[in-house]
Specification:
The protein has about 120 residues and is mainly beta. The protein has strands at about 5, 10-15, 20-25, 30-40, 45-50, 60, 70-75, 80-85, 95-105, 105-110, 115-120. A hairpin with a 3-residue loop joins strand 9 and strand 10 (about 105-110).
Length: about 120
């Protein structure tokens, strides 16, 4: 089992920045793949924001509204990934989720509880 915990969400003014963190547990019995950030839409779907693999290769969303303002990074020594969000807009207000893909007896995705970002104009 992989535990995933997000933090860093806050209420900020438009134009500000936030750095979200996601720490996940690590087990010698598991193999790990991509770790990613998603955010909730108004229709209750989770959309991909950015991902990073164990070698640090990143994948960004093709959504034009997300390009250029979201940067994913990691600190492998801390089993932590980060999402830097710059030039925040009110439409960025939502819950952000971290997903870890791992094989601890079968490949599956593990999700955290989410962290709330609220941007006021």
């Amino acid at each position: 089992q992989v535990q995933v915990v997000e933090s860093g969400g806050d209420s900020v003014q438009a134009g500000g920045s936030l750095r979200l963190s996601c720490v996940s547990s690590k087990s010698p019995n598991c193999r790990y793949s991509m770790r990613s950030w998603y955010r909730q839409t108004s229709g209750n779907q989770r959309v991909f924001v950015a991902g990073i693999d164990l070698d640090g290769r990143t994948t960004a969303s093709t959504d034009s509204s997300l390009k250029g303002r979201f940067t994913i990074s990691q600190d492998s020594s801390k089993n932590t990934i980060y999402l830097q969000i710059d030039s925040l807009k009110p439409e960025d207000t939502t819950t952000y989720y971290c997903k870890v893909t791992a094989n601890c007896g079968g490949w599956r995705d593990y999700w955290g509880q989410g962290t709330q970002v609220t941007v006021s104009s």
